[in-house]
Structures are given as C-alpha cells and as structure tokens.
Amino acid sequence: ISGYSLVVQARDSGTPPLSSSVTVNVDISDVNDNSPVFTPANYTAVIQENKPVGTSILQLVVTDKDSFHNGPPFTFTILTGNEEEEFTLDPHGVLRSAVIFKHMVSTEYVLCVQAKDSGRPQQVSHTYVQVKVIEESIHKPTAIPLEIFIVTMEDDFPGGVIGKIHATDQDVYDVLTYTLRSEQKSLFKVNSHDGKIIALGGLDNGKYILNVSVSDGRFQVPIDVVVHVEQLLQEMLQNTVTIRFENVSPEDFVGLHMHGFRRTLRNAVLSQKQDSLHIISIQPVAGSGQLDMLFAVQMHSGGFYKPAYLIQKLTNARRHLENVIRISAILEKNCSGLDCQEQHCEQSLSIDSHSLMTYSTARISFVCPRFYRNVRCMC
C-alpha cells in the first residue's frame, strides 16, 4: 500500500461541543527491496550463420515490484560467455550479434547476463542465455498465389483487411517477412510479419496486380496477388435473386465452390455470352448453417434481367446447379413470418457499404458488403 489518507476530528468539551477536521496524508516511501525479475528465468535463442553484424537475437524482458524510481531503467551487462565479444547488449535489453557466426566454428554459446535496477542501493539479478548457431537457410519459401475479389458500392470502399498470403518454409527457424513494391503503397499495404493485405479506401473499379514478395532473410520469392474490384450499381439491388445453400460456410463456399458454381450459373442464366453475371454478396443466414448468395445479371445492352426471368432459368437448371453444391431455396420474394394475403409481399434490399465481410482462404478471398433484407405485405 503506497499511502493512507486519514480524516482526524478534534471536538471540545463545551456546550454545544464544537469540532473541526483535518486530512492527514501518510505516504509510504518505497525501499528498494525487490530485485529485477527476468521472464522467463532463462532463455534459449537461435541465430543462423552468415547473418549480418547487428542481427537481433533476443529481447530480454525484466520487471520490478518496486516503485518506478527504484525499478527501470535497467542496466544490462554480459558477465560471462562473451570473452571474444561475439555479442552486444543494448540498453533496452536487445541481444545482437557482433560478428558473423559460422556453424563450423561453434554451434552454441552460453551467456550469463546481469540486470541492475535504478534504486539505491541497487538490486541485481542474473539469467542464462543459450544461443545456438544453426546453418543458414537451404530452402526457399513457398507461397500460394492469391486472388482477391472486392465488391463495393460506387466510390464508397472504406478499406480494410482483404486477404492473407499463405507462405511456408522447410527451414525450421526461418522467419518470413513480406514486402510490397513501394509505388503500390498508396493503394495497398502488406503486414510484413503475417502477410495480411490491407486495401486503403477509395479503390476504383478494375484489376490490380500486386508485386508482393516473401523472404526468409536469404531467399526472396515473388507471389502472384491479383485484386479484382467491382463497384455495384443501385439498379443491381432492384434486380437481385438470392440462392440459399444448405450446410456450407462462407469460407468453404469461397474456397471450394465459388469458381465452379459461377461457371455453372453462367451457363444456366446467361442468354448471351456478352451478358455479365455479378455476385453481389454472400452472407450466412443467422441461426442456421445456410448461406445466401445475391446475384444479378446485366444484359449486354446495359439493363438487367428481371428476377422472375432469372428464377425461371434457375428452376429449369436446378438439377445441374446442385451437381456443384446443394441448394436449399431460390428466393426473390421472402414472406417468411408475414401474414400476407396469398403470400404477396414486397422485398427491398439495403447494402451497408461500410460493414465489409472478408472470407479468406489460402488461394482466394472474397470481400463484400453486408446486406439487409426488408419485407412488407403489399396492399
């Protein structure tokens, strides 16, 4: 307990008794009686041979239970194991290489490190750091090409994470880093540690080819990343049809079925090769394992096919479509839960372009806006 606050009252013996109060603050001064604590108590680290001088090997973590002025900053010193000065230790507790290590010269070093706090008198503690020197990388990283589809309302893309690069390396201790060509950073970013791709706001309609690479420190491998951006027209929402799938997650649909189903769907509903199929959004149905996919078909002339026409085409081709994935229902009007005469209802769709859903797999990622279906009985 660092302090107490007491209220003391003095009362006299008169009639009536009079009194007054005063606050007494008692501060407990800290004595430097706690040594620094390393977490963990001892360390093991690795460094590959032929890494450049100054390579970071390890970050020491030290805490102190004393008050701030008796704790950090800490002073770090390598007491033993560094007689040839192969290592340096900076004031922040980062252990770095001071030479270029060779696996054939030595495979292991054991350092005794001391941490000293800032109190008076100073308290110290020790830890042991085992550093293993391993052979340099012999395997190149391998990465899977990534294709990303982004659907957004006209000029209203808010930006966000749109996918993740999946890369591996057979060298056990390799740490992979990801980079993006500098001239593309005005539109996209890549997290250097985990390979997540971030798109900035305001992407235009079109196709983007990103120059991304992954490196293990020795080998650098390019990765094919293609981003397709499609901007929705308001007219599309008025001519959408919903296909509801049974027992499929969004990620499984995107990764396993979307390409094949899109191809089969085009053959089923397109009257001319020049017509365009637009997948607007996919979204799980709350409280079930079902999945809704919204789509519209644009004629070569520029207009859109009416939902009733598309539903007729879908009904005729349903058996072929279900060769790809099981369909639960084909919806244009959804009167579920409404007591409408002869089940006549009017449906409208609204898109929340600032609430994006990203369904990402190793090879393909689909980013689309969340949609809401509003239904009311017709007079």
Automatic annotation (TrEMBL):
Pfam families: Cadherin (PF00028)
Main location: membrane
Subcellular location: Membrane
GO molecular function: calcium ion binding
Keywords: Calcium, Cell adhesion, Membrane, Repeat, Transmembrane, Transmembrane helix
Superkingdom of the organism of origin: Eukaryota
Protein name as it appears in the record: FAT3 protein
Gene: Fat3_1
